[in-house]
# Entry
Amino acid sequence: MIVLGVDPGLADTGWGVVEFDGQHYRPVSFGTVSTSPDEDIQKRIYTIGQDLGEIAMRYNASVVSMEDIFFTKNITSAIPVAKVIGAAVFRFTELSLPVHLFSPLQVKTAVTGMGRADKMQVQEMVKVILKLKSIPRPDHAADALADCICYCSTLSLKDRIKA
# Structure
């Protein structure tokens, strides 16, 4: 199975692709979709949705794992991210790709075993789990790979519970 992970953001949306056979992870590729603050917000959101769709098709993704919106104090910074999530979900739905949204707590728990893990702990575990030589850069790409691991881990757990 090919999993496309997405870490949504307006300036930089991270993406990562991982192949998972039910037991083993194989990192395929990762990167970011970046937009300029000089562009109109509608154009930026559209570009992110289109580019993510192209990435999904290029790597023949079978499922999408995306981090869901999270905010604590500043809802105005969360609104553009929510719009990006909407555009991405719309585009993936057009491509008949199932999308699974996970909270940051779920992602951290799946990757590190601790829901309160910090960013560096998550990134280090992504490196270890995917057997990479270094922590993926930029940070948003590493977070997207963590989203892939979260989906695969959740899928594996569900399979074990059914058995």
Observations:
- The chain is about 50% helix and 20% strand.
